[in-house]
Write a structure and sequence with these properties.
With about 625 residues, the protein is α/β, with parallel strands linked by helices. The chain folds into two domains: about 325 residues, Rossmann fold; about 290 residues, Alpha/Beta hydrolase fold, catalytic domain (Rossmann fold, 3-Layer(aba) Sandwich). It is about 25% helix and about 25% strand. The strands form six sheets. Strands 1-3-5-4-8-9-10-13-12-11 form a ten-stranded mixed beta sheet, with helices on both faces. It has a ten-stranded mixed beta sheet with strand order 16-17-19-18-20-21-22-27-26-25, sandwiched between helices. The protein has a three-stranded mixed beta sheet with strand order 2-7-6. Helix 1 runs parallel beside helix 2. The longest helix is centred in the last third of the chain and has 18 residues. It is globular.
Length: about 625
């Protein structure tokens, strides 16, 4: 089939050089201009565009081959998040369903502009997909549901590739106009009815939506909303409201002169707002997005295949249900609603720590309460987190999806998150603590007695690197699903006379457990038993002579303290702590049931519940424990 790519797009693409995902010259956004295409054109054009941008080989996702032509349109904002890391998980997707018949692309784009969706897409960064019925006479139906299944599969399939002796061929559609964490459905009249009767009834569909905005529409009596979803309902029958409030398990109610809202007191993101509009306007859509939809996100965390039995595209990435529903703290124009200022820093400050291949820590992101920057926060009053992203992740995406952004906004803390994808352990052991010390020197409001370090997967290994490089800097650390890193002989000396509280975090379907026995694996990459013993030794505490999983399921050792809680009303979390001779819990393990290796927005809260009890006396260097914090 002939490529439908314009000369303007081609000239823009080939003028750009490929940028590798290295620590130097890190690229969070593509330098693309905005585009508007039919979905068929986007499917055909994506591979060539992305190959030119990245130097990778891209191919069209077969899920969208022969997609019904002239039924869907794709608007892509300028500066889409790059696929060179997991930054493209942050692309916002608006999927708009309307029973319309557009004469051409200009008319379709004009429709999205009148709704205000183009402006919202530009603000948020991502894509808007306008979806119309396949059969223009009968309207939306089962054929459209199957088409949506294909579209959703392709859009959420981030990072998927086919590998051969010639190398990897990446699927393009997910990167060209897809996304994962911020997906919002907008239904207009018959489009709202389609969402109600075909998408809301399927757990695999509705649980990937971070929210729905429904203008008008109906819902069959037999239909039932299959899972949790924030819903903004406008001009809808009462029975539609009842179905969405039941699904969201709402137990509280509030109203003002504009709308009423039903919500769950324990989990406010489970909410249904009900409104009446005289007409559908861009201003109304913008208000519904900024006041409601943008406050929720979805993160895929459950083991794949549990609740989605389809075999077609079963091997696709993130093909799981439900995605967890969490509160989102949006970053708009570099700040959150609660006044956390987010800025990218690109400097040669740490170039003197370059490794043999020339790589060094060049790019980092600072998350600072506005009172730190404007000088109104008291000196040494704001805790600091050093946050380390996992392999392939983006620093901002990691901070958001691990739940740290919500945590620091609520508790007025600061975060510094480096891009360190290609740095080696010895470089990280020097540069990461140096970055934290730079933050303390630069911002007087930051508290040197409350510096904490955490990270996930490779970032858990970076957490070990940081602690080994400068243990006296940190009041506590939480390596999450951490790649093994044992201190060198020289680094072990850093712990002489220096205690450091550590909580090891993992889950039962993580790499660290044998799923058949639920006992720890022991391998060079995943070795919690020896890592726990190493930090018991650093804290001058008896090592665990032998792990006994018959006597102590999941953790394998006798503990002094135990706590069991439920995270986000979803998954059971266990924590075991071992105390030193002074009665202070210094080494612990926390395990969440049923989750695989992946980011979970509740993990930051688990880390803070441990770390908040510790400070480091800046005069004596001793760790101080505060039971009530």
């Amino acid at each position: 089939m002939k490529k439908r790519i314009t000369a303007a797009v081609l000239s823009m693409v080939f003028a750009l050089s490929a940028t590798p995902a290295y620590a130097l010259n890190y690229q969070q956004h593509f330098p693309n201009e905005a585009t508007f295409e039919t979905l068929t054109e986007a499917h055909e054009n994506g591979p060539e565009v992305l190959s030119a941008l990245t130097g990778r080989t891209y191919i069209a996702d077969p899920a969208l081959d022969d997609f019904p032509e002239n039924t869907a349109y794709v608007y892509r904002s300028a500066g889409m998040y790059t696929s060179l890391s997991a930054a493209n998980r942050m692309n916002t997707n608006f999927l708009v369903f309307a029973n319309e018949n557009f004469a051409d692309k200009e008319e379709a784009r004009s429709y999205l502009e009148k709704l205000g969706v183009i402006a919202l897409t530009d603000e948020a960064c991502g894509s808007a997909i306008l979806i119309t019925p396949i059969n223009k006479e009968t309207g939306f139906g089962a054929a459209d549901q199957y088409a949506y299944f294909r579209l959703q599969s392709a859009m959420c399939n981030l990072g998927f590739s086919q590998r051969s002796e010639a190398g990897a061929s990446y699927y393009a559609d997910n990167t060209y106009f897809g996304g994962l964490t911020y997906r919002y459905l907008i239904g207009v009249e018959d489009g709202a009815t389609f969402i109600n009767n075909f998408l809301a009834t399927a757990l695999d569909d509705i649980s990937r939506a971070a929210g729905v905005l429904l203008y008008g529409g109906k819902m069959d009596d037999i239909s039932k909303v299959a899972g949790l979803v924030p819903a903004y309902l406008v001009n809808v029958p009462e029975k539609v409201v009842a179905k969405y409030t039941a699904a969201d398990e709402t137990n509280a109610y509030k109203e003002n002169t504009d709308f009423v809202c039903y919500y769950n007191q324990e989990r406010p993101q489970q909410a249904v707002c009900v409104d009446e509009w005289e007409e559908l306007t861009a201003e109304k859509v913008s208000d519904a997005y900024h006041d409601f939809l943008v406050n929720a996100m979805r993160v895929p965390v459950l083991k794949a295949g549990i609740n989605n039995a389809n075999m077609l595209y079963a091997n696709y990435n993130f093909n799981q249900a439900p995605y967890t529903l969490s509160r989102r703290v949006p970053i708009i124009d570099g700040r959150t609603p609660g006044g956390i200022i987010v800025s990218e820093k690109v400097e040669d400050r740490f170039a003197d720590m370059a490794q043999e291949n020339g790589e060094y820590l060049q790019t980092w992101y600072e998350f600072l309460p506005e009172e730190v920057l404007n000088g109104t926060a008291p000196e040494h009053s704001v805790p600091l987190w050093l946050a380390n992203h996992g392999g392939g992740d983006d620093p901002v995406q990691f901070v958001d999806e691990i739940g740290l952004l919500e945590l620091i906004e609520e508790n007025r803390m600061a975060v510094v998150a480096a891009e360190n994808q290609s740095l080696q352990s010895d470089t990280r052991s020097k540069a990461l603590p140096a970055l934290a010390r730079y933050m303390l020197e630069t911002y007087p409001a930051l508290d040197p007695s409350r510096v904490y370090v955490t990270g996930y997967s490779m970032g858990g290994g970076c957490t070990f690197n940081s602690m080994c490089g400068d243990p006296g800097l940190f009041a506590a650390g939480v390596p999450m699903a951490a790649v093994t890193y044992h201190a060198t002989e020289e680094q072990a000396k850093n712990f002489e006379g220096t205690d450091l509280p550590v909580l090891f975090l993992t889950s039962t379907y993580d790499y660290f457990y044998d799923p058949a026995t639920m006992e720890f694996r022991q391998s060079p990459m995943c070795d919690y038993p020896n890592m726990i013993n190493e930090y018991l030794r650093f804290n001058e505490m008896p090592e665990i002579a032998a792990y006994d999983f018959d006597a102590y399921p999941l953790h394998g050792f006798a503990a002094d303290d135990y706590r069991r809680i439920t995270l986000n009303n979803e998954y059971t979390n266990h924590t075991w702590l071992i105390r030193n001779d002074a009665g202070i819990p210094m080494v612990g393990l926390t395990v969440t049931e049923f989750l695989p290796h992946g980011l979970y927005p509740e993990y930051a809260k688990v880390a803070w519940d441990f770390c908040k009890h510790y400070t480091r006396n800046t005069q004596t260097g001793e760790v101080e424990y505060h039971p009530v914090a």
